[in-house]
Model the fold of this input.
Amino acid sequence: MIKTTSFIRQNFLEFFKEKKHKIYPGSSLVLENDPTLLFVNAGMNQFKNIFLGYQFTKNKRISTIQHCIRTGGKHNDLKNVGYTNRHHTFFEMLGNFSFGSYFKEKSIIYAWELLTSKKWFGIDQDRLSVTIYENDIESFHIWKNIIGLSDNKIIKMKDKKNLLYTSKNFWKMGKYGPCGPCTEIFYNYKEKNKKFLEIWNIVFMQYNALPNKIYKKLKTPSVDTGMGLERIASILQGVKSNYKIDIFKNIIKNIKKLNIIKKNNNQSLRVISDHIRSSSFIIANNILPSNENRGYILRKIIRRAILHGRNIGINKCFFYKLVPILIKFMGSENKILIKNKNKIEKILKIEELKFSETLKKGLKILKNEIINIKNNILDGEIVFYLYDTLGFPIDLTKEFCKEKNIIIDKISLKEKIKKQKENSVNKIKTKINGISLPKIKKNIFVGYKNFKKNSLIKLLYVKKKIVSIIKNKEKGQIIIEKTPFYPESGGQIGDSGVIKSKTGKFIVCNTKKYGKFIIHNGYMDYGYIIKNDLITAKINLKKRKLIEKNHTATHLLNSALKKILGKNVIQKGSLINDKKIRFDFTYFKSLTFKKIYKIEKFVNKVIQKNIKIKYNLKKFKEAKNKKFTFLKNKIYKKIVRTISIKSFSKELCKGTHVKKTGKIFLFKIVNEKSISFGIRRIEALTYKKAFSKIKKQEKDIQKIKKIINSNDCYYIKKIKNILIENKKLFKKNKNINKKYIYLISKKISKKVIKINNNYFLLYQFKNEKKNNLKYIIDELQKKFQSIIIILINFSKKINFLIKISKNLTKIIQAKKLLLFMFKKIKGKGGGNIYISEGILYKSNSIKKEIILFKEFIISKLKKL
Done:
């Protein structure tokens, strides 16, 4: 009997349960308390703080099955997936852990018993060999004297160049921290090439690595083990590739069934079967495709799978159709997939549809270029053109070329990428929005502390052209030497105010940044202003203070969203003005009232603490290392401005803020909605506007109480009762209306005219409900198999409805009758061959025209 992956999972946990281990669920693929990891890539990740001694656990023995993703950093298997028998982007790690309960002897004995005992996995002992750290005498003794392995089955792994603790069998979490020797168990296929497969790694956490190459013994040594489910399944199921175990075998089989595959390419089938697992589990963990961080990895995986689909001839949208297949064969224990099935399908479908057009154009160009290449080398300039002009990912070009055994000229590609980066950073814009920028020193913003500043006019514009004077009532733009006006940036609107000289006053309506210059847009209120004039620039301070309250509240909102909805929330845009906050962010579901309340509570709690806000200039690298929030797609200078609100919020920001959070007074969310797939928007108010909103809501509640004649205690209950009663009345009214439709249809059916085995009815109503016409016409058609029905309703407007039985549409069509009607009577409408509707315009002769129209149809039917 074949041991299925579901059976292996269960068997593994049952074994360690017998050994008095507490079974823990695997963690989410994204660990909120560990920003150093994009995704969980090992079973020990969720216990990292326990190994480091920062956290303690009552359960000294733990066993888990952990979902892992390896697509970046030290463990990046993405490029190998599909081309080897063992690599995956997503895999399941079976693990057992001891935190001071047992150490080397028991962990080795447990591993050997599980693998070789007939009660459990029953692997032939002769097939197994082990590696140990050369200096780990204790492990050698256990394997040799307790387990009974011969010397030739125990391979000692040496340190590199005699440097202490550099062996492959000395495991380190990082440069510093817990570390120790490990022992690995290998399966021998006993083939000519003596192929071995590593199936289990047991790490003994004995030391704490400190600076200056000091290794201090841990007071409480621990054990961390890991065994890949897919690898052990391949052995227990008697196959030599992970892609031939039951899960992959069934998924690949169904991929072949799903579409007509022109090319039976095993590599592409492997990639697709692997990537549907990783992308589905990533989405189920609330990550959405994007151009940043985890979302970028997800998008890359999805696109790679789609490319391989096209590679084997699947030209239609297919990837999302694999989700039900995956769920079926991953086993019922993977409830996270079942719960998120619809979401996963929807996201994958949208991603494929969005990418398909780019892929189609890119592949066409790529295939044409490949025909003409020399020496099997593709010029990097082509690769860059596809990426820069069409948005065709470089990774996918590399993937396509790898399939065709074509080499990309990496030198020319690197040169192109480097040149583009240099251009984007160093390019000096000489013209923005039609305004020619001068070759003068940039003007300086001094508005963090100065709200009024004496300065000098550097440049004037009227109708986007440089002038020497702005006259009375003329619109224009001004550049001054030093300005207190904040330019529109980072979602914050630009300041408004006045620029005054001895000869005139310029009203600043908005301030924007054009290249390196801050430009003041507005008009002359009176007088005139000349270049090189001495002026006084003064911002609208009341407006600025309101903007500052909203901007600081936006930072707190961003932190609240990450805390309450998860650290995967990414800012996608904002608008901060003196009236409100608008904040866009990534999130798949609408926010419940409970979550909105929690967000408001978090922000208002920080406001009430009246925390002093700290502003500092830091090196960008330092700010990044200290976990300050910043926009990943933005280019930052070496020195950046940071805003800190204790531990609640840490962001890079040039904007203006309040000095203390208490100045915000109050924060209130007034709207939450979806603006596009996976992007939601929150609108919020602060200070007096938030208070006014709450007062208005209270007034509305008081009005409702008055209308329903209820007091404070019972008004919600009374509203519920009214709604229940209303539902009953609606149901009752619906039944009455049904009876009315039946009776009125019965009555007017007597007016039907029979003409040559066909029927005709034109009936005129007065003040009938528009919706009732549709019900009446349907009811009439049930009574007569071959009929033309025209219902006209004289009300404020003259509505009409035409319906024709299917068998008559070969001779008379509803749409054509409608067009003929409009020749006789003015009106508008539309429809199809079976049903048409519209409005007739009132006239003195309309009733006569309707009679003539009726006679025309009767004459038409008589000829049949």
